[in-house]
Specification:
This protein has 18 helices and 15 strands. With 573 residues, the chain is α+β, with helices and mostly antiparallel strands. The strands form 3 sheets. Strands 1, 2, 3, 4, 11, 12, 13, 14 and 15 form a 9-stranded mixed sheet that branches. The longest helix has 37 residues. The radius of gyration is 29 Å and the shape is elongated.
């Protein structure tokens, strides 16, 4: 079923890891210093060259980030300079052991000049500017060595010339490498890769990059499409709204506050008259992210229109959860309409293709349902789970369970919402609806999070085993709560999992206490939005990975050629 290798933004994070704590650098620094002392044979010179250049470069980087106002934390700064230290030392040892030069001074300066290449690549990402401006911070380690050079190499000033030229050659090589690797991306999307990468790495904290990324997504999410927007409204018997369940067939991404991210809160602020909104994650993927506020406005208007034509019932069926081949489905019927979920319990998946959900809805109407909504449960998080592009095996099960599920019970529903500031939980918090059918109570929970762990789900079920007969926990797949794609994590993987489980259990218990007779209405309207075309997001990810592959192959001949060139510079200048 999944013949193509699926890529996700989470995969991109493997290329840039979090900075290691500086305390782990102490032992390696001492070891490097001892090895360098063995070759240099002078304790003062060794101290000036190893910890001296390292600390001066850190200070220069701190000064630069301060005046340039880029987001570059101290820990990241220390990590960058530690890696630079390791790079030049390994190169230095190779040059010494191969007797490349008669004395260690030329080997030392050639090795340190090589740090410019690595640092140029790093600052290309974190300091999105043109190549000339990236040159300034990329040579901070070179500047630090120049300061030390004046102190210890008084009779070797002529070496400054090849040192500077060599550093510039390495910078030029890095610039060539970047231009070669990103050429395809720039040609296809007409955007600055550095500003987009910097936005992701720094959670969109720089306004300039934020605007650049917004323009970028405006271009890739430009396909106009009419999508269904479904509303299931629960009203008390006095006519007041208890809760409104929203099923908009767009995806709540891509990141931060761009596109249609943070959809639950953005719809809630636009529709205060509908009370609390439970905005479910429908069968959509990153191809179905929208351009921005205008699309959200159109969806809000469609919800208002649906609100005007609701058809109500006071009868409901008992919820059903069954296996459908390799999949698990959930069905709840109210009168002659209902909702269903595809749950990644037996088979892992992350997102469901929009066309698959629409196909299921069409089949449900064909068998006589007045209306139906299908959601992707977006739970039981598994890393690198693929998108579900064929949900056809679930259709017969949805049809069978809906027809078998006779709505013979009075509609009795309770609702509660709980919020606490815990890692991975966005502003809509934890919302619970408890459905009573006879003497049975079943809970449906929606967490405003980017997925949820299976462990947390099981903890909640264990806590509620004596309270309700079943608990389904779905998520909004909110991409706002994990604004930086280098920190994508599901609810329950960070913080106190027991505390989060207690909060969810509390919401369910409050919802059960709130159960009362209600009327349930459903209606559908349509909104015109601008979203990506089919496979648009995968094309973007593939283009990025293609750039990485190009960079790897380009590096194979660029770096050796640069090393050979700089070696000759020190030999003949």
């Amino acid at each position: 079923m999944y013949t193509e290798k699926q890529r996700s933004i989470d995969d991109l994070s493997t290329f840039v890891r979090k900075s290691i704590s500086p305390k782990y650098f102490i032992a390696p620094l001492i070891a490097i210093g001892l090895i360098d002392y063995y070759f240099i044979r002078d304790i003062t010179t060794t101290l000036l060259i190893v910890p001296g250049t390292f600390l001066i470069s850190i200070l220069l980087d701190l000064f630069f980030t301060k005046i340039s106002k880029i987001v570059f934390p101290v820990k990241r700064n220390v990590y960058l300079n530690f890696v630079s230290l390791v790079i030049w030392n390994v190169f230095f040892w190779i040059l010494i052991l191969t007797h490349a030069f008669r004395s260690y001074d030329s080997s030392l300066l050639l090795a340190i000049s090589s740090t410019t290449l690595f640092r140029f690549l790093i600052f290309y990402v974190f300091y999105p500017a043109d190549g000339i401006k990236d040159l300034i911070p990329s040579m901070n380690y070179v500047y630090s060595m120049l300061i030390i050079f004046i102190l210890i190499f008084r009779s070797q000033y002529l070496l400054i010339v090849p040192f500077i030229i060599s550093s510039l050659v390495y910078a030029l090589a890095a610039y060539f490498l970047i231009r070669r690797a990103t050429a395809k991306f720039v040609k296809k999307y007409k955007s600055s890769p550095s500003k987009i990468l910097e936005f992701f790495l720094n959670s969109g904290k720089r306004l300039e990059s934020n605007i650049s990324v917004k323009h970028f997504f405006d271009r890739i999410y430009s396909h106009e499409r009419k999508i269904p927007v479904k509303l299931v409204e629960v009203r008390r018997m006095d006519g007041s709204i208890k809760v409104s369940m929203i099923f908009p067939y767009i995806h709540p991404g891509p990141f931060g506050v761009l596109g249609s991210s943070n959809l639950p809160e953005r719809l809630s602020t636009r529709l205060p008259e509908l009370g609390d909104l439970m905005v479910f994650h429908t069968t959509t993927s990153n191809d179905n992210n929208c351009r921005g506020d205008q699309d959200i406005d159109n969806i809000a208007e469609a919800i208002r229109s649906a609100h005007q034509k609701l058809v109500f019932t006071e009868r409901m069926a008992r919820p059903r959860k069954v296996a459908a081949g390799k999949f698990v489905i959930y069905v709840e019927r109210f009168g002659n309409f209902g909702l269903g979920a595809i749950v990644p319990e037996k088979t892992a998946f992350d997102d469901v293709a929009l066309e698959e959900g629409l196909k299921i809805i069409a089949h449900m109407k064909k068998i006589g349902a007045d209306d139906f909504a299908v959601i992707d449960a977006q739970n039981n998080f598994r890393k690198k789970a693929p998108e579900l592009k064929n949900a056809s095996p679930t259709i017969k099960a949805f049809e069978r369970e809906f027809l078998r599920d006779e709505p013979k019970y009075e509609t009795r529903i309770g609702y509660a919402r709980v919020y606490e500031d815990v890692p991975g939980l966005a502003s809509m918090g934890i919302q619970a609806a408890v459905l009573q059918t006879g003497d049975r109570y079943d809970a449906v929970v929606l967490t405003d999070s980017n997925n949820i762990t299976t462990d947390l789900i099981e903890r909640v079920r264990s806590r509620l085993s004596d309270t309700v007969s079943s608990v389904e926990i779905y998520t909004t797949d909110n991409h706002y709560v994990n604004a930086s794609v280098l920190d994508v994590f599901p609810l329950g993987s960070r913080g106190d999992a027991d505390r989060i489980a207690d909060l969810i259990a509390l919401a369910v218990k409050r919802a059960k206490a709130d159960v009362e007779p209600v009327k349930v209405g459903m209606a559908t309207d349509y909104a015109t939005v601008k979203m990506g075309e089919k496979n648009n997001f995968q094309t973007l990810i593939s283009t990025v990975f293609s750039a990485v592959r190009t960079a790897k192959f380009t590096a194979i001949y660029t770096i050796p050629t640069t090393i050979a060139t700089t070696f000759l510079i020190f030999r003949f200048i």
